[in-house]
Write a structure and sequence with these properties.
homodimer; disordered C terminus; DNA-binding
DNA sequence: CCGCATCCCTAGTGATACTG
DNA sequence: CAGTATCACTAGGGATGCGG
């Protein structure tokens, strides 16, 4: 779907192999995906809740980002057949297993981003 | 430059703060950046060497990716004033400090990417 | 309430020709 | 050798309106 980058020298022929790091990178390449994962790591959320938590995102975009995370099995979508409809999103085991990676990235980012302010919020802590 | 994603709820006013995880993500968001960092983590490379190591990349793109990594202080550019010109690229301390993050991402990717083949090359091991 | 379909727009990539 | 400049192209984001 996104851009899959073969490692180059190890690519066989037309069978392009994917570097695991690049795979991980591409998983969260969507503009809102990391933030979505972060919110869902704290609690299950309904569609409209997520939209409110992500100021500026439109329904269409939110839907697409969630669908892609679903396809990658990072996010679980639970549909309640009620009227009015109710849909809840949560992390799958795979999604939960990604939280430590988020933490590492956050730690490194905190140490290395040129911050005018000295302290920045850790994204995975409450 | 790239897309900087404010965390949303903690954004002050027009002063948008950046989530450290998102910062890290954006640093390596270029299509070839991770692969470039990987190659440079193994050894210093000249411009043409890098181009040969990245099949399909054009000079213009390679230049821009390198310039951006330079601006972020991930990569050091050493120019030798000779004829013909010679330029060598290597990792800065910041760039080197990122290698463990690459490793974590690689490990997670290896465990979770749906691989038809059972084993995939670790990107940072020789 | 949730989401899809559609269209527009921009950023980023790709390709080529030219230069110190 | 190591770029720069230019243009074309594409993927992805954003906005809106309709539908179950």
């Amino acid at each position: 779907m996104a851009r899959f980058i073969p490692q180059g020298e190890i690519v066989p022929k037309g069978q392009e192999e994917l570097c695991p790091v690049t795979y991980t990178q591409n998983l969260t390449a969507g503009k809102w995906k990391i933030t979505i994962l972060w919110h869902l790591s704290k609690q299950t959320r309904r569609f409209n809740e997520l939209q409110r938590l992500l100021p500026g995102i439109s329904k269409g975009i939110l839907t697409r980002q969630l669908r892609e995370l679903e396809e990658e099995e990072m996010v679980h979508r639970e549909v309640y057949k009620e009227v009015p409809p109710k849909v809840e999103y949560s992390l799958t085991p795979k999604g939960k297993s990604f939280i430590p990676v988020l933490n590492i990235m956050g730690e490194w980012g905190n140490e290395h981003m040129k911050s005018n302010q000295k302290e920045l919020k850790p994204v995975t802590k409450d």
